[in-house]
Design brief:
mainly alpha; 2 helices
């Protein structure tokens, strides 16, 4: 089960991804409006797809980092020195 802190970070990562995708779509629309031929429109579409893929990759990377932080925090134990006296002659 996700911790509340990790879930909040994941929600923020997804929101950032959606914002980046919306920005890429707006840029594509502007580039298509300025395009003079089909090739320019196709290039604008490919640029948008690349930006969307990059945003999704960053989101998944961020989520993986959050999961790793959770695991490291959960399993972070230090080994203490024994408190009993050593055996043998002193």
């Amino acid at each position: 089960m996700y911790s509340a802190k990790q879930k909040a970070k994941d929600v923020a990562a997804v929101a950032t991804e959606h914002a980046e995708i919306a920005k890429a779509k707006a840029e594509e629309k502007a580039q298509k409006a300025m395009a003079r031929n089909k090739t320019d429109r196709d290039i604008a579409e490919e640029v948008r797809k690349a930006k969307e893929a990059e945003a999704k990759m960053k989101m998944h990377d961020t989520k993986a980092r959050h999961a790793e932080e959770k695991l490291v925090g959960k399993h972070h134990h230090t080994v203490a020195a024994p408190t009993y006296p050593p055996h043998g002659p002193i």
